[in-house]
């Protein structure tokens, strides 16, 4: 049975890391956009304190949802069931998935009020307009750009997996295949890094802003760690692909150098 060539071993680790990165991006795109996985939302706006305060003051309820969440490809509304140790989303309702999500929480709240024929409005409830304006002017655009970067990243990573698989199975490739593979791996890492930074900025800055301007009326923001864990782990796995390629290449070349040195030494001795 013929043995696999040395080149196949050099491609093993990079291909594994590229495949891991590819799977993580697929999960990110699927779970991060799925309403059935609320903890993977980028950010959620909590109105429960506002509703409780209004009920205490007036004895009446406000017909709005407890949470309004932003996902990678959709926005959702839900109620919250909280215990001292956990927070669970119930009665989830989401808009149809799309590639250009526009998160406008005040519009969603006003739609709830209008649907239930409430006399209250977002203005009468004194919900700060800044909560919506920051998304309309900045973060909706940033999220759309990040989504495009994720699409390019998953394509580039998929190409990397195919190139690695071709080398593993000793498929004949053009002479510049190594350079192409390294460049593709670097591109995948760059795309994922930029997309991850954008998503992190949206999550961190939007949460801080909403908590700052909404605290006085009982509006707050929170987020889980699932989305960030997936995006940054995929970025790290993508980075390890070219690094492991360089390591295995140096290790392989070092072995060849030792073997060649031994051959030269033996020749000198035989003379």
Describe the 3D structure:
It is a single chain. The protein is of the alpha+beta class. Helix content is 63%, strand content 10%. It is built from 6 helices and 5 strands. The chain has a 5-stranded antiparallel beta sheet with strand order 4-3-2-1-5. The radius of gyration is 26 Å and the shape is elongated. Residues 3-7 and 254-271 have low confidence and may be disordered.
What strand order characterises the main sheet?
A: 4-3-2-1-5
Number of helices: 6
Which percent range fits the helix content? Answer: 55-70%
How many strands appear in the DSSP assignment?
A: 5
* Dominant shape: elongated
Mean pLDDT: 83
As a whole number of angstroms, the C-alpha radius of gyration is 26 Å
In what range is the share of β-strand residues?
Answer: 5-15%
Distance between the termini: 37 Å
Structural class, judged by helices and strands? alpha+beta
Keywords: Membrane, Transmembrane, Transmembrane helix
Transmembrane segments: 12-31, 141-169, 181-202, 209-232
Protein name: Actin cortical patch SUR7/pH-response regulator PalI
Pfam family, one: SUR7
């Amino acid at each position: 049975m013929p043995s696999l060539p040395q080149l196949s071993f050099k491609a093993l680790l990079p291909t594994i890391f590229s495949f891991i990165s590819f799977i993580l991006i697929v999960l990110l795109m699927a779970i991060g956009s799925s309403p059935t996985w609320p903890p993977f939302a980028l950010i959620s706006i909590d109105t429960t304190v506002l509703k409780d305060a209004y009920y205490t003051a007036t004895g009446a309820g406000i017909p709005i949802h407890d949470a309004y969440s932003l996902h990678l490809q959709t926005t959702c509304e839900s109620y919250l069931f909280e215990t001292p140790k956990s927070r669970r989303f119930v009665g989830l309702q989401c808009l149809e998935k799309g590639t250009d999500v526009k998160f406008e929480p005040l519009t969603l709240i006003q739609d709830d009020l209008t649907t239930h024929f409430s006399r209250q409005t977002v203005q009468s409830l004194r919900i700060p307009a800044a909560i919506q304006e920051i998304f309309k002017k900045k973060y909706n655009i940033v999220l759309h750009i990040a989504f495009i970067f994720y699409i390019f990243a998953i394509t580039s990573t998929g190409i990397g997996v195919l190139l690695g698989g071709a080398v593993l199975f000793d498929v004949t490739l053009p002479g510049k295949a190594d350079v192409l593979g390294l460049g593709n791996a670097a591109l995948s890492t760059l795309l994922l890094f930029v997309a991850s930074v954008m998503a992190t900025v949206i999550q961190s800055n939007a949460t801080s802003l909403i908590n700052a301007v909404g605290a006085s009326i009982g509006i707050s923001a929170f987020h889980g760690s699932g989305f960030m864990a997936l995006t940054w782990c995929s970025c790290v796995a993508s980075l390890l692909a070219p690094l492991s390629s360089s390591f295995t290449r140096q290790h392989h070349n070092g072995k060849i150098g030792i073997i060649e040195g031994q051959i030269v030494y033996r020749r000198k001795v035989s003379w």
